[in-house]
What we know:
It is built from 12 helices and 10 strands. It is globular, with a radius of gyration of 20 Å. By secondary structure, it is mainly alpha-helical. Helices cover 38% and strands 6% of the residues.
Amino acid sequence: MRAFVHLRTTLVILTCCLVAPATAYEFRYLLQRDAVHTWMAAQALRCAAAAETWKDIVDCEDQNLESAPAVLYAAAPAGNTLTLTVSDVEKAVIWPDDPVRELRWYKLYRIGLWSWRLAVDNCGRRIEGIHKGLRCSSHYGPMQFLHAMESERELAAADTKEAILDWIQYAYSVAGNDSGDSGFNNDLPYCATINQVYGRDSKFAKAMMPYGDTGFPCVKDGPPWRMSTPFSFSCIIRSSSCWETITPNDEGIRLAALGAVLHVIQDSYAKGHTSRGNDTADSVALFECNPIKQFQLYGEQDHDVHRSADKFPKRMVGCGDEAVDGPVTASAKILKLYAAGAPWSDVDIYLRQRVFLLDAQKNHPAGTTELMRRRN
């Protein structure tokens, strides 16, 4: 009887893992075959390492880079050099899919709990915001800008874009942890800095501080949050009740933040996340180097089609000649800018011009394309 119970439990866990939704390109920690993010990040690192400057990077898509140099040296606070390897970026880029490090120990019960909450329970009532946990809020709730998606129907594309860029700016600042007159960035007080840098009324700030200055996480028991805190958690049982286990300047925090930047850029090319124009193609796993027409709503989609679109994408013919860079090329340029210690203003200009460019003639409020629409 005990053996039967163990077998049944194992089958339930495996079933959860196999049906878990991919609101981002798939990754191997859920026993899925297409580790797209990790592959893109590794390719981008090799492409960046082989270039003299970020402006020398022209096209990293569909390139055979396996034999290219695989180490990038990045400037770090106080003159410490951060060495980026393929293994570093592969681990870092999956942080938004596992933002409280529930799957890092490969324990079946952790995978089972993660998958049950996300796939079967659809995160239940844990999607209201950051106070309910990063994982559910970023997959189903108001923090879907971590995956280049939107949760508010009919919200203007420009508003979603600004929230995504604010998120990238925040993550880039944590990844850099630059020191200034007031000390290292990651030691700065969370709420005061969010208010000062992003403005209390911005969509991003409202998601990061849902109760303003008078509620969580600005008012809470225990130590106050710092800028590094959202990247520092590790959970075992509950994804909304976790431990801050990593110090602010720890490489693990900085790499997770850098991985978050790469992740959202790569997600913005997946058809289930944004529409860049070709939404009737036979192959849904197809990326385009076109301006963005619409940010997608996961809650209204056919999740099987979304999952299919998150598999290894094929590139459209002539993509290298378009106004927008491809996902690996964009990731490589960001890595090179980061390694050079480029200020956010340079990164912001690049992202607005070559990645998150909106279609000036035909951009639509947040919704769901016919290709992704749920049929039942």
